[in-house]
Amino acid sequence: MRTVEIRPGEDSIRLGQLLKLVDAVPTGAQVKDVLVAGGVRVNGEPEDRRGRQLRRGDVVSVDGMEDVRIG
Fold first, then answer.
1. Could you tell me if 26 and 14 are in contact, meaning their C-beta atoms sit under 8 angstroms apart?
2. For 25-71, what is each residue's pLDDT tens digit?
3. Which of 57, 67, 15 lies closest to 36, judged by CA?
4. Residues sharing a CB contact under 8 Å with residue 69, sequence separation 6 or more, in sequence order
5. I need a labelling partner for 6 at 20 to 30 A (CA). Which of 16, 22, 58, 63 fits?
């Protein structure tokens, strides 16, 4: 499992930002397509909101990729 650290001074990151950061999508425009296809889960639950706030301890799963824990 890969860990992605939130920037100092911040307490969350949006799901769309994280997907771009971990190269799950090449561009921000493609985030919605991945979410609508149902390939993203947060803490085991399907998620389709690109603006979902992720906090430390959350685990994001993307089909075909290593899980990512927010640190």
1. no
2. 988 889 999 999 999 999 999 999 999 999 999 999 999 999 999 99
3. 15
4. 1, 2, 3, 4, 57, 58, 59, 60
5. 63
